[in-house]
């Protein structure tokens, strides 16, 4: 038995393992040395950095099973700012003293099995001090798995709960374990982060983590020694790395390195006890952010008494910007914003009392308060609104900014809700829009952290919607929907459904605009509840009884929810069966552009759309521009992981001429997206506003008769009346900012201002305009704050502020003076004098930071970019419209003036709250020895050689005197920044563009270094003397005082007069030119002395003459002279332009012209240089036949061009094939002439063409390119021969475009062709009037009916009812007869006019009768007994009905009966439009087999 017990004992002892879970003995106290160091800089190790070091001793004692005491002893802070680690750090006593005050008493923390629990401290300890303790305790956080040596888990830490990997190595011989721990800070389930100003940036939850531009990781190394009481941590070191690469480049990153070291130095007997003071629980080890908004990381301001500082800042801003805007104004404005955030309500009220009556101070104060974003500032603005102490413009600007930038809280939301019902807001329609939309945006930001959003917060919006429904006011309904759309809360869905057709019985009676807004209000809700919103949208889109615009808007929102393949294909099936071509075209176009998308975040949607397009019919591919479509442009730069898309949604309606337009732009960067801007325009019923006459058709005698005839038709329904209005809305960063709903009355007032400009222009010419406006704006504040392992916050921030300043003094006179009833025609006969002195400037300061940002100190890296532009304009203009003379005199500047300055620079920065005015700022890289490049530019020599002066191009003597580069290099570290300048001297002014380039000695070849290094660009102007610039333009001039002339030599005749030489001839002459080039200068001198000049076109007048002059010291010098000549009324029409530099000679330096040689050929040329002989580009255009189709060929030959232009052409020859391949063109490698490009376009049909493009080494072609509209080109040789000029279609294109949109209907030989170009066969029964065209709008302007003549089946009779006339056209004895109101009109009395109710003209044309009444709605009606053709203007789109159709482009729904329902076939359709009468007996009608045709 004893042996058995002994063996079991040995086995038990051998099986025991060391307890590797860390812990502390309750008998001892442990003293550690602690060091925490944070280093921030660029990745290059040799550059300047900002370093912060914390060191202390940490004493840890265990006082109970889980409770431990931590004491911080001898804390010390050291800083460093410079080239690391070349110089030692320096101590900062003030920061050390403040840090010492953080740790007056011990801290208690819970610790069990290596895990930190809650942390306790005195109540008055700041959260910043607690976070430093968290950083120290984070070193003790370790999870040990005794069963595995390599494992991973989600573990708590300072940065949150993140994925942690462990590697355990045991040294049993020395009873020591080494544990390595790494954390991926980008892969956290509960990440500690604070974002400010990013509410409008949408993250992409499905994007891969590896495409982000910011990354973070931390690694720990533990050394544990096994003791009798367990494992003891004897040493811990950690290193955290956080990088940001704006351009996603290797080696182009800003880096934060944080290091910690905790080493056990001694153990003593534990004499510590539980603290007697009451301690407060500060939570677990997760970092906590303070409640107050931290200061911007670009300054450290004392904010304990902000009012005096704000007064001082306002005084500086006003005083320093009295004459012109100070470049430092944006930076000072940012400080004023910071002080406003610290101001109390009493401070703000006191400041208002001081500056309310001082306009400049008031504007700066309100601008700062509006963007400060605190509860105090918002309450202050609320009181000003309720007191009505702000004007309309101030109220709109300040409230718009305040609602979108104020930090939300229960107090802020309550104040905002009070504003909604405030009497001061209710009085102004504009303020109501700003407040209601702003409140919705504020709710959206607040409820991002609340799920669901509290009902009491949403209640004001829901009350607004309920009130709008009960009152039925359109503008209120739109406002309520937009406000709920801004909020984007799922709780609002039921309220929005009340406005959605198909979900509410009353919604069908609402205006289309309200229904569309209800659909758009679901956009943000879809981000939180996508499945339910998709179901609603799909039902709306699939409901073909709804208005087209509403369904198309539903399609837009549906695809914004990023549906998967099954839903996209389901929608494609709906489109395949869709008979509404506007809707089908829109959906197909939308899917097509999505399928070609390049944005990675939309790849899944693009793939789904590519599948769906394969299911759709090709019929939707060839629809014209009359149908709805989507225009899409996008781009994505993979190297930078940034991109953008721009879309324009064109939503045509069957009954309107103008499409509804929705245009938006969205940006993408890494894993986030932002809706930048969106605008929407709706134009309804505006065609009637622009009528030349306002005709009361309802008062005409025929109005009642037309209505009575319509009622005879079975089920006839009059179209609803159109309400003329213009609707426009603006969205910024996915929130509706403003909208305007303009009714007919306001539109007519605007039209009146244009047609009667006296009311608008008289105040300008009588009183002039004088004033100044300064507007500061906070352009951006984006802040991303994460904790470091040391327990200090790391901020990645981007701040931007701009100040715009405009001062103007404008006076004018007009002769003769305008009267109240003066129209635009009086302006065309008047003489205008206008004098203006305008000085506009803008200054922008952008700061990017990566820094430790606390209330007491800041340390990190800053990038500063400053932009300042100053544009002074002083001019006198004289415009004589009658004499066609324009004279413009400008005096830009009278002294050296800097027009533009851009400066960028990196700094390593250290700031101390006790010394805010003396921060440590070390340039990265260090400032280099340099010189003032601008001064050297102005002082440089102007001497140039004659060879340089002979070149007339972008670098000619007339524009540039010198291009000089200065590179100064000295030994070792002494180096000057590479600098260069370009100097342009002309018109008496010297203009210098200087560039101080980034030093390549310190930076790698990376974009971050290239763009953000120490760079400077400046543009300045300096007058040589008191100089004015004068431009004088005169049309149809007979004067030739400055006429251009040429030398008359044989060579000139070859090179100037013979502009039309062929490519082969020019190529043969090139060798001749080369041999003569060496003798050019000598020959030029000789010709000047021996040849007499000849005047060009001396017997022709100039169409246009322009002179650009410089007036120096009252002496006028003409610099450039331009003449435009034409000979259009000759057998060889020609247009020529000549430009000459008259400062040196009258010889032309640029010549261009185009000539039409014959009806099928034209040639053009562009020559420039000395006497237009240095460079030459020739163009030849021919019209003929290509593969049996009418075609046009364009050839461009460049015989001699500058090297830069030749290089650009070479680059274009590479770019064009690549783009052509993306567009689907075929290509074939073929060697073509190297200095020639040709293109052939052949019209294979009126709606399609073939293309052949020949470049140097490749030929591109496509045989079937679909055109958006038919082209007016004859398709047969005999028709083409009849045209006076084969390319006359070019001048006819605008009118042809309009003509193709106009509706045409014809009845001929029992064939009826509708306005939508649908033809069908129908035999009219005798003695029965059929309604061909009926104005079905409420105006009932006209009715056209036709009847088969009783005496002949080939003849028809027409009757037109309109105004007070009834016009009958019929054929008798082979002649077309006309009867008006029952009275026959003899042929000799034609033409017949009737003007009492609109211009009506009836004439005889081409063996028939023609009726024109455009104001009535009949543009042209032609009748010859057997054929009746009717053309209506564009204003009748969607307003017609009858056998000619609706004129709505819906040719698949052509057979609409009077009831509005669709007939089964053409016969039923035609018979439904028979006007019943006693003499009418319906006869059988037949239709051939097959469907109706559409051409």
Which regions have little confidence, pLDDT < 50, spanning 5+ residues? 4-17, 941-977, 1038-1099, 1482-1491
Overall number of strands: 62
Fraction in helix: 25-40%
Rg, alpha carbons: 41 Å
Task: Give the mean pLDDT.
Answer: 80
The portion of residues forming beta strands comes to 35-45%
Shape: globular
For the report, how would you describe the main beta sheet? Answer: 24 strands, antiparallel
Structural class category: alpha+beta
Distance from first to last alpha carbon: 112 Å
By DSSP (H or I, 4+ residues per run), the number of helices equals 36
How would you characterize this protein structure?
The protein is an alpha+beta fold and about 1500 residues long. The protein has a 24-stranded antiparallel beta sheet that branches. Strands 1, 2, 3, 4, 5, 6, 7, 8, 9, 12, 13, 14 and 15 form a 13-stranded antiparallel beta sheet that branches. Strands 56-57-58-59-60-47-48-49-62 form a nine-stranded antiparallel beta sheet, with helices on one face.
